[in-house]
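subagent[fold] <- orchestrator: predict structure for attached chain, return tokens only, no commentary.
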Amino acid sequence: MTDQTDTAGRSDLGQSDRLVGLVRLVIGLAQGIALYLLVRASEGEGATWSSRFPETFGPLVLVALFLPPPLLAGVGRLRWPTLAIWGVVAAAALAFLAWHDVARQAGDVGREMTFPLFAFSAAALFIAHHLIVPADRERKLIASFPAYFDAAWMAGVQLVLSIAFAGAFWLLLFLGAALFNIIGLSFLGDLIEEGWFSLPLTGLAFATAVHLTDVRDGLIRGVRTVALMLLSWLLLVLTVLVGGFLAALPFTGLDGLWETGSATALVLSAAGGLIILINAAYQDGRADNLPPAVLRIAVRVASVLLTPLVLIAFWGLSLRIGQHGLTPDRIIAVACALVGAAYAIGYGIGALVPFVRKGSPWMKALEMTNVVTAVLEVAVILALFTPLADPARLSVADQVARLEGGKVAPDKFDYAFLQNGSGKTGRAALARLAGSDDADVAERARQAQADIFPVADAPADEAFKPTIATLPGAPALPEVFFQPVTDDDARRECRADGDCLATVGEAIGFQPNTVLLVQSYRVTIYGEDAEFGTYIPLGTYVPVRCGDETATTDARDLLRQGKLKAGYSDNLPDLDTGGERQSPLSPAAPFACPPAR
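subagent[fold] -> orchestrator:
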């Protein structure tokens, strides 16, 4: 009877594993197809949609990139209703973060998601997912610390191994393609260059790796144990280095640290390293899993060292903010320092309490500190990338207040930051300053509005108008395209008849509201900034005709011959010069022909 029960249990377990594996493969395939469709939408004629509606395109990209991994990890570990609710909430949060990141930017062209959004949203998603999984499995709002530890560190190892598997899979495909090419068969090489093949296949490979590492749970735990053991002994090294650094400061002073210009980033990086290594040594905190005595001492010392590191970070930030005011980077640094302070307080209490209260468990305060700070991290990231604590908005408000309060003279104020570095909020503030009762401030603000790409010590010649021709019968160029330009603008080189030709982008398949300036050796694409009635450079092409030594490489001749047209690319279209495609370069760089096969 027992054997029959065991057999039935194993059969049910096998069926469950197969169902989980199938669902994961479907998710991986769906991700690959979604990414392929989004790539297609950003190429060729579809690029018009992605460039004209970035507030829609950006959220779709972020959701397609980041939602599948937690879904893959959650299948089989979360109850189906919990997984469905979490998936909807995560998708909505990612879409809103992406929408806000794009919508807050100024201008009608070139609006894309920023790198910090990708980095911080990935971190928030990972943290939130591993707060939810243990709580759901234990059916409690707050799970036990060992459950959090097990879920997060197992997922970290699983993620690294899955990425490594997908990378190795592609290395083997490239090797196979090279082998087939040797015997004159290029079908595999041609296939892996096609997005409809490569992206879904990558999604399937990653999903397969996630499932294989999940099924072989014991092997992953073994890898994790080895990794934690190695990391825990590195704690000794970093603790000695940080301790030596702090001990030397009274004798060397902090001037050298401030002169680096990156003191806050350095000390916060050191604090982050200590936090990771402290957790590697502490692990799940169970009495039967304590590290050796020397590591327990190192954990306590490192926990105490966090406080002076965070204080130095705050000191450095306060000096910079006092001197120059808030900027988006400094606001993000303040947020990181606040999170570091939460860790320093909790870990410091955990290290010192046993000396005050005898018999207290070793570093027990670390457990609740980690859980509370994880929630804090998610909340801080959501605040930073939503209107609640938008760094650009806070920075603009502070900088303008400094100007209006007399802390910064009008001739020292950074008007370019409002125009080019803080999105719509900055430009709105600059418009208010342009109407200021202070004539000096108003004039400088108006100059900043007109000078989209200012060049230090090289003001534009207001009397200069470029000499630019169009082909017979071609649409006329917008009058604002001939506005005065700065010294680094390609239009400055258009001084004589024949130097430059131009065409509106739509005439050769580019996006609406673009103009291509064609010179003998390069083509510059400009996009309209309707808000300020001007055209700004978006990228540069350097056309070369390959495979025909007698063919012209003068871009003006290529335009006259009708051989310049839009191709495809991720953001801006490629330039087709009659069979050869080239992506936009910025700044311009030589374009080499591909080697002959």
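orchestrator: received. Logging for downstream: The beta strands are 501-504, 514-518, 523-529, 534-541, 565-566, 575-576, 581-582. The first strand starts at residue 501 and ends at 504.
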